[in-house]
Amino acid sequence: PIESLKYDEHGKKNGFMDLDYKNVSPIIVVTGFVATTAEGVPTTLKRSGSDYSATIFAKLLEAGRVTMWKNTDGVYTADPRRVPEAFPIESLKYDEAMELAYFGAQVLHPSAMVPCIDGNIPVYVRNIFNPSFKGTVIQGRSPTLKDTDMARRQEEEEERKMEQQKGGAGADKVFTKGAPVIPIKGITSIDKVALVNLEGASLIGVPGVAQRFMAAMADSNINVLMITQASSEHSICVAVPSEQGSKALEALQRAFELELARSTVNSISLLRGMSVVAIIGEGMAFTLGTAATFMRALATAKVNVRAIAQGSSERQVAVVVNAEDATRALRAVHQAFTLSETVASVAIIGAGGRVGGELVDQLNQQKSELKEKLGLQVNVIAAMSSSKMIINDKLMGLDTSKLPELIENGVQTDLDAFTAAIESDINPHKVVIDCTSSEKVSEYYEKWLKAGIHVITPNKMAGSGDLGRYRRSMEHVKQGSAQWHFESSVGAALPIISTLRDLLQTGDSVKLVEGSLSGTMSYVLRTFSETTPFSEAVRQAVANGFSESDIRTDLSGHDCARKVVILARELGIDMKVEDVEVECLIPKDIMEKKYQGTREEINNAVINDLKKIDSDMLDRLKKALANNNVLRYHTVINTETGRASIKIQETKNDHPLYRLKADENLICFHTSRYKTSPLIVKGSAAGAELTASGVFSDLLRLMRTF
């Protein structure tokens, strides 16, 4: 009373008591955060206590709005420090905001919304450093469980009446009326959590176990963050703050001391190093499958769920995961609900080569298109050439428009360090694109696939190399660890492998595969004529960029043999490169000769040496033409005998290969279903541009599964 009199005298002295407050709105400056208890003891309102102070005074003064000035652009869909793709939420209901605050949203006080609810006072969260941004507005209540149930019943009744009017039986409908496009508003987490678990087979059907469990928590002042219980009460699990874990364990051991002694309770355990991850939003109550999307996203990100709980209001679903998996879980779930673009962390090996360079150009060209139309984002977090590599320190993506310069200024190539950097990325969608023809790089595929890193490659070494390694790699793929896409290793951008898989998976039986799988040889044999020597046709193929880096790989048939082995293994034939019968067009002395110089100089020397076979090749051509035939590089895989061959063969004008163009590949599938005419896949398949396009297509195909 004495203090009140002092304040009244102070108000009179300064004229405050004489103001007409219906016409004048005074500016009141109040200290927030600090307070006193009911006993008069000074205290604080904890984290974001100033927010709580503001909403209390807003209610007392019947304010029209509350604005909380922060250092962020409102309330975000997730913590942007852990989910870089997070963005400000335009609007929230009070209930949603309280759930977000409870589950760790740092920008709000858990109780700050309560004073504003009765008066429906809007709360604005804005950025003091960006005042032009409108931020987040919090106002209104979410529907109760009763409201949700009534709305569901009303919609079902409306649907039933509509169906009856149409003369049809009522069809099951997914309850989405009035639902937001995205069913959740945000994803948040609580770190430093421990799980306390009570288990006992003898507790099944025994009443009061849960009551005793929670009473023990309450008596010891344990803050229970979430609870999950088997319907039989065989097990009860609660999440508590990590610092209270031991205290909670001791409380339960005391409460169930007799049951432990009699083995009625099997165990009471404590598990530290946990985090709670929660999705929140009123739209969950109106949309079926939200929990399924949540769980699927966690499974895809290889995050193990230790416990799960859902509020009866259907505004939140929370799971307990290992603390080291929490950030990866947040990013995976954020992407799964299309709160952000689907982001793939991509590492490119061979970025300095022809195919790798062309791939980077295509990624740059399509960057905006992917984001705007497909909701996909490719973050190149690392790139490697034959001698240098660059890894983005924060794994947020390199500037691919400057990738050649970044690689040139990078560090020495180290595949182990490169792998470690990719594995450390918290993004659940990690991809290695190998644009080399390196055996050494292919030896890492098994390790990458086992670690959950997807592999995309035109490199034929792993698909046609060591059979044991190939089988182990495919086993990791079957187990769902990661995906391995190598469509471009056979036909560049042509869908040869995918077509073959479709045939086999739909139950068709492939009898024979034949065609031409070498774009280089297609060009050479199409260009080669009585006026253009064989060696000159080879020179033109190299000049057009159709050949492998070493032209001898094409002319020896070795490159094509690897493609044949890849297809044979897809057909279930355990074939090796040495099992393929190959016609080598290069004399043994040229094949074994040790050439010196740059790659261009070596190829020129090889081509010059090839002139000595021009005469023999011309004779073969003339003979074919005399028979009204042409020469084609013919590949055959016979599934019945398990044998394969590659050779130059005279081709009649009724064969699909007869009209093969200069840069084309063609493959014919003779199957049980395609009896009258084979299924043919044909098109341009030579050059780095098409190979890179095939790799790009594999990447998009992969990202659509995320």
Concise summary:
With 706 residues, this protein is an alpha/beta fold. The protein is built from 27 helices and 25 strands. Helix 6 packs across helix 7, helix 9 packs across helix 10 and helix 20 packs across helix 21.
Secondary structure layout plus pairing:
Layout: H1 2-13, E1 34-36, E2 42-44, H2 49-60, E3 66-70, E4 91-92, H3 94-102, H4 114-117, E5 123-127, E6 136-138, H5 145-165, E7 186-199, H6 209-219, E8 226-229, E9 235-241, H7 245-255, H8 257-261, E10 267-280, H9 290-300, E11 305-310, E12 316-322, H10 326-336, E13 342-349, H11 354-374, E14 376-384, E15 388-391, H12 403-408, E16 411-412, H13 415-424, E17 430-434, H14 439-442, H15 445-450, E18 454-456, H16 461-464, H17 467-478, E19 484-485, H18 488-491, H19 496-505, E20 510-516, H20 519-527, H21 534-543, H22 551-555, H23 558-570, E21 581-582, H24 588-592, H25 599-610, H26 614-626, E22 630-638, E23 643-651, E24 664-671, E25 679-684, H27 688-703
Parallel strand pairs: 3-5, 4-6, 13-14, 13-17, 17-18, 18-19, 21-23
Antiparallel strand pairs: 1-2, 5-6, 7-9, 7-10, 8-9, 10-12, 11-12, 14-15, 15-16, 20-22, 20-24, 22-23, 24-25
